[in-house]
Each structure stands twice: as C-alpha cells, then as structure tokens.
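Late entry, evening session. Most of the bench is empty. Finally got around to the prediction I had been postponing all week. Sequence below, unchanged from the version circulated by S.P.
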Amino acid sequence: MPTHLENEGVLVRRAQAGDHEAFAMLVRQYERHIYRLALNITKDPTDAEDVLQEAFLKAYSNLQSFQGDSRFYTWLVRIAVNEALMKLRKQRAAPVMVALDEPITDGEGQEIRRDLADWGDNPEQRFGKVELGEILSAAIESLELPYRMVVMLRDIEELSTEETAKALELSVPAVKSRLLRARLMLRNKLSRHFNKAKHA
C-alpha cells in the first residue's frame, strides 16, 4: 500500500490548475504501485510499462473530472485496471504462448497435470532457495484474473472494500464474495503446495 501524501488534496488541486510539478510529485508517489498492479494483471513487463504510461496520461487528461469524492490513488487504480483489461482484451485475438509452469485446463475448467521430468533441486534445496513471499506471489498469479485483481487491491494494495468496489466497478457484496472465494482458493493452493513438498 502506498504512503499517501499528507498534502495530496493540495497537489491534486494544484495539478488541476496546471501545475506540472504537482502532478509529477503524484506520479513519483504512485508509479511503482501502479506498475506492480499492471504487471500482476498483464503478467508482462512491457505491457505493464504501457499501462503505467497510459494510466498517467489518461489521469492527466481527465484531471478536471476528478471530483475528490475518493482518494486520488483509488481513482488512478480504476484507470489503470481499465487500461490493463483493455490491453488484455486486445491481445485475446493474438496467438498466446503458454509457459510450462502456467496451469492449463480442459473444457470443463479442470486443471490438467503436466508430467515433466524434474531436473531441479530436491525439496530441501528448493525450500532453502525459495522465500515464502515468492510462493505466495506465484499462488496469487495463478488465480483467475477477477480473483487476482480483488486480492491485489484488498490484500496487497490494502484498499478498503468500498475503494476496491469503486476501482473494479463492482458492488461491495460482489467484492466481499469474490475476495472470500479468492482467499479460499489461495489457501487450498498453498496447502497443496506445502503438503506436496512435505511428502516429496
């Protein structure tokens, strides 16, 4: 969650009045968080860079429409989410290369197991190298996009349920329901991961 500037409201008003430096300060404050969010949605650093630039350009162009009824960051997140989703929609028509560690599913949504020779480290060596944070990040990344976005905004960016609902254009009950399902899926994924490692 980004640290919000104490004078954020003042900076926004100055930027709305044409102060470029005030807007640059807002960009510096939030660019890392918006990039991380875009990367989590697109899963591609180049696309995340594009989303970051487009989101700030769009925010700058539409600065006068920001009424201040939410935090500036929440408004920015909503723009970035829309830009990232638009980029994904445009790419759906293009052929997609799938990484070997990406889950694949059959027509009924069941995950298909890939049987590949494991030439990597044994479990003790793996756990010596892999941090818990990386395991959790991988579990979050494996969630379907709607669930991944809700977890990112609520649990990583620490937006409130209401802010998350506004950013994703969902109702508060829909956010709560989606978050509950996402957390249950994460718990199951992590349980399977650690049980598998324990018995390896």
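Two things to note before I forget:
Residues 114-122 have pLDDT under 50 and may be disordered.
The chain has two domains: 8-91, 126-199.
Will write this up properly tomorrow.
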